[in-house]
Amino acid sequence: MAANGSAARRDRIVRLATTSGLASVEELSRQFGVTASTIRRDLAKLTAEGRLARTYGGVMALTAHPEASLRQRTGEAFEEKQAIARWAAARVQPGETVLLDAGSTVGALAHELRGSRHLTVATSGLTALQELADVESVHVECLGGTLRPLSQGFVGPLAEAALERLTFDRAFLGTDGVSVTEGICEADLRQTRLKELMAARSDHVYVLAHAGKLGRRPFHTWAKLPPGWTLVTDAGASPDFVHRLRDNGVRVELVEVPAAPED
């Protein structure tokens, strides 16, 4: 529990630094109710991981974020991702053809779909492939293409060509950031191009993103999605941000995260 608490605190520090720009050790110590030395250890770890850049007396979020690997992202906001994945899995109906993007939250959705029957799943992500490879009741198609090691997803002309030959009842996309005006953010132009094609080939488009990704702009490459797409996030999302998304025609689903059991 203590380790999970430390990880959650570090995730919140990154979110605060990203939105506020600068937070001192003393401010963070007061806010989280821990000692200054604990905060300094948190900052040292986050700096070593490349998630923050240090300044004298404090910490500043990176303006040009190094892309985190899928393994690094898997433990971030774990409970929120699981709750979002369960909500998304409940939308999938028997007999549908579903498209799964790469990413840790979509990978959690693939795990939830292991009990499905008469389902066709196409995916660009290795995590989804690994989750569903041994499930006989789910027919799996791999888009193929060029593998990006950091995201563990396929991109490029071959993946795009495969999409041109398929249509989908539902597409579930991951993202590194969500903007009210720009759409969804990724590190690589090939990723955003593929996401736009995925959305264009699908009847219903869902973006799965925990609240910490809302309003984030870690990279400069964006995917514009068709009107009426659905953001699935957790109930910790900023009400103002949710309101602005809805004003822009985005459907927003807020998923409650079950409280952790007491010791």
Question: Could you explain the architecture of this structure?
Answer:
The chain is built from 10 helices and 15 strands. By secondary structure, it is of the alpha/beta class. It folds into 2 domains: 2-61, Orthogonal Bundle (Arc Repressor Mutant, subunit A); 71-255, Rossmann fold. The strands form 4 sheets. Strands 6-5-4-9-12-14-15 form a 7-stranded parallel β-sheet, sandwiched between helices. It has a 3-stranded antiparallel β-sheet with strand order 1-3-2. Helix 2 (25-32) crosses helix 3 and helix 5 crosses helix 6. The longest helix is centred in the N-terminal third of the chain and has 19 residues, at 2-20. The chain starts with a helix and ends in an 8-residue tail after the last strand. The model has no long low-confidence stretch (mean pLDDT 87).
